[in-house]
Specification:
CATH class: Alpha Beta
Shape: globular
CATH architecture: 3-Layer(aba) Sandwich
Radius of gyration: 13 Å
Low-confidence stretches: none
Strand order of the largest sheet: 2-1-3-4
Mean pLDDT: 95
Largest sheet: 4 strands, mixed
CATH superfamily: Glutaredoxin
Helix content: 40-55%
Distance between the termini: 30 Å
CATH topology: Glutaredoxin
Number of helices: 5
């Protein structure tokens, strides 16, 4: 991964409390897993930003290397990698996602 790409990724996740690398956008998800994440965050009323990895092949590969996670979407809260769709669903069902988000937004 180039230093420039790493810097781009870090800038995105550090300037947004909740950030999602996904297929499509929060307004038009392009896969079911990305849609799951958008729906969960929307249900919680969480402000979040997204990056459409379909628009940038370098970023699409780079984010997988950066997080050491092979799939998309990837959710970052307070600059920390949380996981993908399945992990977000589990955290949401346990009530833990709301706590993570509240702490992030309060900091």
């Amino acid at each position: 991964m180039t230093p420039e790409l790493k810097s781009r990724i870090e800038s995105l996740i550090q300037t947004n409390k909740v950030f999602v690398f996904m297929k499509g956008s929060k307004f038009m998800p392009q896969c079911g897993f990305s849609n799951n994440v958008v729906q969960i965050l929307g249900t919680l009323g969480v402000p979040f930003e997204t990056f459409d990895i379909l628009s940038d092949d370098e970023m699409r590969q780079g984010i997988k290397e950066y997080s050491n996670w092979p799939t998309i979407p990837q959710v970052y809260i307070n600059g920390e990698f949380v996981g993908g769709s399945d992990i977000l669903i589990q955290l949401y069902q346990k009530g833990e996602l709301q706590q993570l988000v509240e702490v992030a937004l309060a900091s």
